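Today's session is about reading a structure prediction critically. Students often jump straight to the picture, but the first step is always the sequence itself: look for stretches that repeat, for charged clusters, for runs of hydrophobic residues. Only then move on to the predicted structure, which in these notes is written as discrete structure tokens rather than atom positions. Here is the chain we will use throughout the hour.
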Amino acid sequence: MTVQRWALGVEYDGAAFHGWQSQPPVAQAVVGRAAGTVLPTVQGALEAALCQIADAPITVICAGRTDAGVHATGQVVHLDTSAHRPDTAWVRGVNALLPASCAVRWAVPVTTDFHARFSATGRRYRYILLNRPERPAILAGRAGWFHRPLDAALMAEAASALLGTHDFSTFRAAECQARSPVRTMTEATVRRQGDWLVFDFAANAFLQHMIRNLVGALVHIGKGAAPVTAMGDWRSQRNRTLAPPTFMPDGLYLTRVDYDAVWQLPSTTGQGLSGDPLQIFNF
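Below is the predicted structure for this chain, in token form.
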């Protein structure tokens, strides 16, 4: 039977999931979870819905695995199936079977040499941080929060030390499985809008916990606990233990994955995604 590869654009509220990647059942009882419970993941929810549409097992490969609590407005995945279905089945049909916290935005047939991860040329993340004494309520779990005043100008200056090609070992998780810690950062900005700080990062790829570690370091500088030059120093030391702690995942969004225009995906042609993936925040 003929196998067709499909590329799908996916968005999700990471607060509802224990990260992207499917996990084995928990080995022993934990708070709120009985032994043998399968933790909810984005991959698990998506594959379960796709299997029902295809009436056969489906495995999806994503452009970038996100941690527990991290959101996405522009995740891209691919799947192979011999089931002949219209593109509407992979969007509206799958969405009817997904939990409310996850949705397929678009579906495009691609050739088998397309790969959601390896064909990607870049990724873009945005971190949304509420900077006021009171914690958020409506956006709890969807925005980060820091109660003390932060100097956005100092943080923006510090972020410029991240631009270019560097060894980012200082900002990778201990369990990160990437073969190389070297990444090329093409954008690292911080700007304030009222009580909000908006962090934008773009690179060819990112390491595990890299953005959350960078935000933690920038917040440390913004509150006056370290000078602007500390960011470059931490980066050069290539030692995770010397840098500030990892920041909360709540405000982190994978907003875009870039591909060569030859693939004609909505995320690269401008169709199906807004110019600002988080317009709801008025940023």
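Discussion point for the tutorial: The CA atoms of residues 129 and 144 lie 4 Å apart.
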